[in-house]
Amino acid sequence: MMTNHDIVSLLVICQLAAPAATVALVGVPALLGRPPSERATALIVGGGFAAGFIAGLLTLAVLAARSFVPEIVHLGSWFSVGHHEASIELVADALSVPYVCFSTGLCGLVNAFARKYLHREPGFTRFFLLLAVFGTGMNLMVLAGSIDVLFAGWELLGISSTLLIGFFLERGNAVRAAMRAFATYRVCDVGLLAAAVMVHRAVGSGDFNRLFGENWPHGTCLVPAATATIVSLLLVFAAMGKSAQVPFSGWLPQAMEGPTPSSAIFYGALSIHAGAYVLLRCESLLEQAPLARGLLIVIGLGTALHANVVGRVQTDLKSMLAYASMTQSGLIFAEIGFGWRIIPLVHVISHAILRSLQILRSPSALHDRHELEAALGGHPGADRWAFGRLLPEGLQARFYRIALDRGFEEMVVGRLFVVPFLRLLECAADLERRWLKLLGGDAGPGGGRS
Amino acid sequence: MTATVDVSLLAAAAITVAAPLFGAAVTASGLHRGSPRRLAVAMACVSLLGSLAITMLWSQTDGAPRVFGDRLGGGWFVCIDGITAVLLPYVALVEMAILMVAPRRALEPSAVARILFGAAATLAVFLTSHPLLLIALWCATALPTWISVRSTPGGNAAARVFAIAMSAAVLCMAVGTVLLIIDPPWVAAPGWVGSAGGWLVALAVMIRKGIFPFHSWYPALFSGATMSTALAATVPQVASYTAVRLLIGHVDHPEGVAAELVVLSQMALITATYGAALAIVQRDLRSLIGTLAMSQSALVLGGLAGTLPMELNGAFCVWISSGLALTGIGLVSWALESRAGPIRLDTPQGRFWDAPALAAFFLLFGLAGIGLPGTLSFVADDLIVSGSLDEQLHAGLLVILATVLSGIAMMRGWFHVFGGPGDSEGTRHAILLRERVALTALLAALFLLGLWPDPLVRALDRATARLLGTPSAAAAHDLQDLPQGR
Questions:
Q1: Which of A140, A147, A450 to mutate: most B Cβ within 10 Å?
Q2: A144 strand-pairing partners
Q3: Closest CA to B386 of A201, A204, A188
Q4: Boundaries of every domain in chain A
Q5: Which of A125, A143, A184, B107 suits a disulfide with A35, CB 3.0-4.6 Å?
């Protein structure tokens, strides 16, 4: 006779295994030179999301019947060395299960949309494969019951996001945007990696139930305030990159170079809120870390203000939507900083649904607008800068300039950090080449080829 | 039972080394009339099977090192322990993959003989802890590499750089080893002779491993030699193994060689970070692979010189994961170059459209080298970062910085090789079956060990515990698993 725990365990494994299986089912034949047809690819990936979604709904029903008492699904130890143990632990609770339903449902819808949208696109299989990797990573991150599992999901999200931004490999802008996003992710991932190490040192394993009580949203912190503060600050740093918070926000408008369906699901809906999800998951730690909460409020409100002002002067629809996403993401960060739990969750889900719909609709909305303009013989909409006209004239021009330059964020980050760093490296590489020339003779090494 | 296992281990070790040696002799003598590749791959397969037999036989033992022959300077003529059991199949697999993927024109009989001889010498290194034999094998592994680089068109400069580095390394190693034998630090606290010996061996390891400021031969070799030569000379990491046998294994004598290890560790971590940073601004694919290989190899030494089992375990995992991933990247690049010429990284080259299958393999190997979840490198990064941070904050931060920078360099490499507009009328380069098989085998190893890392990590835990003289967590865990009363 199966217990409730067994049923939930089976369903949770299914939520994770279904999209993961589609990665193998599409990826392995593609790697062996026999990719499935368009129809088969979309069916396999869509089927995986549908199975995950149904399993999610069933889990939700089981949990709801038991007043959302959390279930920990322990799948064993991945590996262990000394006091360092990486266990595969998943959690089904009031946060993870609704979020999985929402994310797999959205992935399924985008899958259905993309099947038509990307019909006969040369990278059709690649897109669906990356979507399946993303879905797997998302479910892994959401269902994670330990920081090791969460980090694995987080990394899969970053990699699939980068590869989808650079999906149109022939476009220089797409390649540059993908590199920019990857570099930002990589730098900010340091926060999550360091947080994982800190957690292991503090409690001897990465399991969340040793860090805080399981009963979300009423969990309690089980580690000292100093540990909670350090881990929280590291998590905030990690979340800033993935959720495009100032000063790591420059990659988001450029990320719209990817195909519209992936932009919708990544930068309108799920990936942009991954940071917020992690912070919500660890909210008990944040409660013990007023410094981190204060920082969240400052960063969140700063990002919202920055994105709102900059977004008002954007001249293309996708950039406008990117800044709109950033604004909402900043507000969600601030809400988490204020210590709210349900409001940011509702905000994440509602914003994600609205924004992904807007992004998916954007190509045809542009077409509609052009038709409307042709019919009216002029500009039909309101001036987005109208609110700015309330400012004194001198300030208007100054703000407009600042907004056009995207708040000088890229200039500051580039001039202060990226350019000097790259110049230093170029200088070192040049010295290396000269040294090799000296050692190896006139020509220096480099001529040998098979 | 023990005697049977010992005889079987010795027989498997002999087969592992003798098979490529036999292949080299037959190819060099001209007795074999057929395809040199077929014979070479067959011999590499036999060698791989021999090494796998050692691993399987080893798993049945109590974990104590099995030694044969004479003992000298703290080492044995043939020494098989946990480290051998783990690393030998890795080296054999890399050698086999190189032989399978190498383009036909790189496999003339003389070249095949050199590759097989080098493979035999490299495999022999991993079966001994005898200092004098190690010196001889250092020469035996360096010589075919040098001849091969010299015979490569345009490779004279690289050959000169390599010769300077290897001569210095072998000289330091020989003098240092003799001094260590005269005044062994593992017997008693050493005088100045033993200390000087330790420092000279450490210097030799630094040069042979391309640790800053002796790193220049690493990228030079990748730029000037054929890919098989460069990979075979660097990926097995002969110097890391020597460091394990001659320096790290005696760390429990604090007055012995510990100071050298501290310097080695710090310089290695600096090299790992520096190499990863340099890789970001490389202008051609060969240099990128060379600097990344230098960085990863230094990271291994940085971890090996640590004093915590987790750090050593992480270093061994990085050794295997980065080696397999770099071999894959190197072989894909070689396959690509052999079809379309040298590859620059100044601007996106648009090669995705010519060779999508090679692009997929390059991407997977690249990701498997920078910590893709599900691959061994994810486990390796986790262990080495945690271990380094546990030992020293700055060491941990350098390891993190190195992994971040190498990740950025790797992705930049992929986007610059495969991104960009392609030639719509250009030739489509299909991947050959032998290439696909070899690359898939390497990938499968990376994913299998990543998804199911526990057996490897446990085996390494026992080996590192023995190396450091600490109790093994895996052994303790096993004892707990035993039924009560046993």
A1: A450
A2: A90
A3: A201
A4: 4-363, 407-438
A5: A125
User: Interface pTM (ipTM) of the complex?
Assistant: 0.92
Residue segments in chain B with a per-residue pLDDT below the cut of 70: 1, 72-74, 186-190, 249-258, 424-426, 470-486
Q: Do the bridges between strand A71-81 and strand A84-92 make them parallel or antiparallel, or are there none, so unpaired?
A: antiparallel
State whether A432 and B278 contact (CB < 8 Å).
yes
Q: Does B292 touch chain A (CB under 8 A)?
A: no
Using the beta-carbon criterion (under 8 Å), do A439 and B164 form an inter-chain contact?
yes
Minimum Cα–Cα distance from B451: chain A residue: A78
pLDDT given at position B186? 66
Among A35-49, A379-393, B120-134, which stretch is predicted with the lowest mean pLDDT? A379-393
**Distance between B344 CA and the closest CA of chain A, angstroms:** 12
A301 CB-contact burial (10 Å; exposed 0-12 / middle 13-18 / buried 19+): middle
Residues A294-346 have pLDDT tens digits of 999 999 999 999 999 999 888 888 889 999 999 999 999 999 999 999 999 99
Which chain B residues are closer than 8 Å to A444 by Cβ?
157, 220
**Are A23 and A132 contacting, i.e. CB atoms less than 8 angstroms apart?**
yes
Nearest-angstrom CA–CA distance, A399 and A390: 12
Whether A194 contacts chain B with CB within 8 A: yes
- Determine the Cα–Cα distance for residues B28 and A155; give it in Å rounded to an integer: 49
What is the C-alpha to C-alpha distance for residues B198 and B251, in angstroms, rounded to an integer? 12
pLDDT in tens, B308-341: 888 899 999 999 999 999 999 999 999 999 988 8
Taking the Cβ of residue B357 and every Cβ of chain A, the question of whether any pair is shorter than 8 Å is answered with yes
Contact A75, A96 (CB under 8 A): no
Query: Chain A residue with minimal CA distance to B376?
Result: A79
Q: How many residues does chain B have?
A: 486
Interface touch A429/B278, C-beta < 8 Å:
yes
Residues paired with A79 in a beta bridge: A86
Distance between CA atoms of B453 and B474, rounded to whole angstroms? 13
Determine, for residues A169 and B396 on separate chains, whether the beta-carbon distance falls below 8 Å.
no
B401 burial via Cβ count (<10 Å: 0-12, 13-18, 19+):
middle
Phi, psi at residue A43, to the nearest 5°? -65, -45
Q: How confident is the model at residue A385 (pLDDT cuts 50, 70, 90)?
A: low
Question: B277 and chain A: CB distance < 8 Å anywhere?
Answer: yes
Tokens read off for B120:
């035999």
Q: CA A415 to CA A209: how far, in whole Å? A: 44
Distance CA B453, CA A148 (A): 14
Tell me the shortest Cα–Cα distance from A123 to chain B, in angstroms. Answer: 10
Q: Which of residues 239-268 of B touch A (CB under 8 A)?
A: none
Is B226 near chain A, with CB under 8 Å?
A: yes
Cβ atoms of A92 and A59 within 8 Å: the answer is: yes
B394/A contact by beta carbon, under 8 A: no
pLDDT digits (tens, 9 = 90+) for B116-173: 999 999 999 999 988 889 999 999 999 999 999 999 888 899 999 999 999 999 999 9
Specify the residue for token string 């090299």: B271
The amino acid at residue A302 is: G
Q: How far apart are CA B297 and CA B294, in angstroms?
A: 5
Which tokens in the block code for residue A175?
């390649």
Maximum alpha-carbon separation in chain A: 80
Q: For residue B186, count other CB atoms closer than 10 A to its CB.
A: 18
Give the pLDDT confidence score for residue A187 in this predicted structure.
Answer: 94
Instruction: Tell me which DSSP letter residue B475 carries.
Output: H
Ordered DSSP codes for A356-388: HHHHHHHHHHHHHHHHHHHHHTS--S--TTGGG
